[in-house]
Design a protein that fits this description.
This protein is α/β, with parallel strands linked by helices. Helix content is about 35%, strand content about 10%. The chain has 12 helices and 12 strands. Strand 5, helix 4 and strand 6 form a beta-alpha-beta unit. Belongs to the metallo-dependent hydrolases superfamily. TatD-type hydrolase family. Keywords: Hydrolase, Metal-binding, Nuclease. GO terms for molecular function: 3'-5'-DNA exonuclease activity; metal ion binding.
């Protein structure tokens, strides 16, 4: 494996020659984790329409930055089927995964009363809604002991197997297979208010058993949050101590774990998916610095996980201001011209304190502050939606270029090296080229 660049490269003031791609290089990206089937990309927020469907605009903006392949995450029966419809509507551009997210795993519980085909991701309510209308209280985790419905488990796994097998069939002789990975599935102990640890462990183990039995196997699209020990233990139980029975590999997406955890996952042959959540703290960025380029994949996880100004990694997006050119020397003027200039200036000055304050406010309004990090596309609030603009707070696949730039800045390598490594890794595992 290639080794990571030393941490001396974590200086955000590296020269542009080091961090920027070659002048004639056109970046290319595959977003390995985009929740494009979420109704928010159709203009629906929490079950209510706020603006016209702009999904095609989202895909167009992604293409404009070089993100030509989108792997849409399936995290429940409904979202997996919706993602599959998208993949078949945009063949060769959109691909999909299918699985049951740990936060959607309450369908395995004895206390779950809805049919698993109707249950959606992370506690959604309305039938057409993936984004939660409200979140359960994080301070009230669901306790273990609620029981597992083993009869229902057999039906769920059987139905999931049927979904996966049908999704692997091409929709036409010319179209590529839409489904490229099994998942998203795994463990999330940070969000036990969605599903208890007991049920999550059962869900993960049952799906691992199914994934191991598929012929041919699919790559795994994995989720691990604050659950590393159990996560690795169950993977090894299903695929061997070195994951030697895992035929197609897998990626642990949206990684926010420790350096030691990341190294163990890479040692098992897994890939590491990086998005905006991977840059929140200095410790997160230290982890990114140690990811080997031949184990790196890029993602946005939109509509969530955007890079924010509060994130430690944001500084790698900030362009150093160019030094202003020296002002030309002021030409000498005669006494008469100088007196005239002074008199003219005096006439322009506000006459009293109130006028001075008004003038100051006027000047502030006219001097609109330039954003610290320029936006490639116009950004508007959803209430002021306009065609061609991004929606504020709704992360899109076109922002993947920011992920690549931050990774390059942290590691002290060029954007081209990051893009090409991530592209090669993704094509190798998911076969989407």
């Amino acid at each position: 494996m290639a080794t990571a660049t030393p941490n001396s490269t974590s200086n955000p003031t590296q020269t542009e020659a080091t961090l920027s791609p070659a002048a004639d290089y056109k970046p290319r990206y595959i977003d390995i984790g985009i929740n494009l089937a979420d109704p928010i990309f159709r203009g629906r927020y929490h079950g209510k329409s706020r603006h016209p469907d702009d999904l095609e605009g989202v895909i167009k903006r992604a293409d404009e930055v070089g993100c030509t392949k989108l792997i849409v995450t399936g995290s429940s029966f409904k979202s997996s089927r919706d993602a599959l419809k998208l993949a078949r509507a945009f063949p060769g551009t959109v691909y999909t995964t299918a699985g049951i997210h740990p936060c959607s795993s309450s369908i395995f519980s004895s206390s779950h009363h809805r049919h698993h085909d109707e249950s959606q991701s992370e506690g959604e309510g309305a039938e057409d809604e993936h984004t939660p209308a409200y979140d359960p209280d994080p301070s009230k985790p669901i306790a273990d002991g609620g029981g597992i419905d083993h009869v229902r488990t057999k039906v769920i796994i059987s139905d999931l197997k049927t979904l996966v097998e049908q999704a692997q069939l091409p929709s036409s002789s010319a179209a590529p297979a839409a489904l490229v990975a099994f998942g998203e599935f795994g463990l999330d102990y940070d969000r036990l208010h969605y599903c208890s640890k007991e049920v999550q462990l059962h869900s993960f183990a049952a799906q691992l058993e199914l994934a191991a039995s598929l012929q041919p196997q699919l790559p795994l699209f994995l989720h691990s949050r604050a659950a590393h020990s159990d996560f690795v233990r169950l993977l090894q139980r299903a695929f061997g101590s070195r994951l030697e029975r895992l035929e197609r590999g897998g990626v642990v997406h949206s990684f926010t774990g420790t350096i030691d955890e990341m190294r163990e996952l890479m040692g098992l042959g897994l890939y590491i998916g990086i998005n905006g959540c991977s840059f929140k703290t200095a410790e997160n960025c230290d982890v990114v610095a140690e990811i080997e380029l031949d184990r790196l994949m890029l993602e946005t996880d939109g509509p969530w996980c955007e890079v924010r100004p509060s994130h430690h990694g944001w500084k790698y997006l900030v362009e150093k201001p160019t030094e202003p050119a020296p002002s030309p020397a002021t030409p000498e003027v005669g006494n008469g011209e100088a007196d005239e200039a002074v008199a003219g200036t005096a006439q322009q000055q506000p006459k009293n304190k109130q006028q001075q304050q008004q003038q100051g406010k006027k000047n502030k309004k006219s001097q609109k502050k330039e954003p610290e990090v320029p936006e490639r596309f116009k950004v508007v609030k959803k209430e002021k939606w306009e065609e061609g603009a991004m929606v504020k707070g709704r992360n899109e696949p076109c922002t993947i270029e920011r992920i690549a730039k931050i990774v390059a800045g942290i590691k002290g390598v060029s954007v081209e090296e990051v893009c090409e490594a991530a592209w090669a890794n993704t094509v190798k595992v998911f076969g989407v080229e």
